[in-house]
Amino acid sequence: TTDVHKIPATIVSRCQRYQFRKIDPDDCVELLLEVAQKEDVTLDKPAAQLIARLSEGAMRDAYSLLDQCISVSKNVTEEVVRESCGVAGNEQLFEICEAVLYSNCASALRVLNDLIENSKDMGKLVEELIQQVQAQSAAEDANDRHRQTGFAAVFQRGQDQPQHRCRQHDTGGEGQDDGRKFVGEIFENKA
């Protein structure tokens, strides 16, 4: 149980207690690559890293995600993982970041609509965007312009552009979901 405090002391005294920790992502990647090799499956290292990140340190979840990907293809690439797990591709992440930086609501909403139509998970999309922004912040903190990723270049271009306020557009109907609201809030808070 995760609620040990709810168990009476008379029961706790008769039980062994194990505190499980999250598995380090590098260890998770190694284990996934070993399993893939034993199962005669080709697993790219970037795909294994994505699975490790999506599993959030839970090896059982990582194995389940790998099985899910193997059911799609015996050659598991990062694209196969993204498609199987409902995660947006890097291109869509770039487009959303660029749209936010340039206050282009229409472009951001177009990308979000495409992702929704393709049944992508909006919660995972927000997590991916947050991770990319955090990675950019770390790169800026280190003042290491040579190691910046594609996102860093987009962010750098955005810092050089004049900032314009963009109001959240009412797209109407059933399509208003968390993803659209999230992007709208970013644009509203940006100015």
Describe how the helices and strands are arranged.
Blueprint: H1 9-12, H2 25-38, E1 42-43, H3 45-55, H4 59-70, E2 75-76, H5 78-85, H6 90-101, H7 105-117, H8 122-141, H9 150-160, H10 178-190
Parallel strand pairs: 1-2
Description:
The chain has 191 residues and is mostly helical. Helix content is 62%, strand content 2%. It is built from ten helices and two strands. Strands 1-2 form a two-stranded parallel ribbon.
Stretches with pLDDT under 50, minimum 5 residues:
146-150, 157-176
> What would you call the shape?
globular
Q: What do the pLDDT scores average to?
A: 75
Taking all Cα atoms into account, the compactness measure Rg is 21 Å
Q: State the distance separating the first and last CA atoms.
A: 46 Å
Listing every helix as H and every strand as E from the N terminus to the C terminus, the arrangement reads: HHEHHEHHHHHH
Q: Which strand order do you get reading across the main beta sheet?
A: 1-2
Per DSSP E runs of 2 or more residues, the count of β-strands stands at 2
User: Structural class of the helices, strands and pairings?
Assistant: mainly alpha
The main pleated sheet reads as: 2 strands, parallel
Helicity range: 55-70%
- Put simply, the count of helices is 10
Beta-strand fraction estimate: under 5%
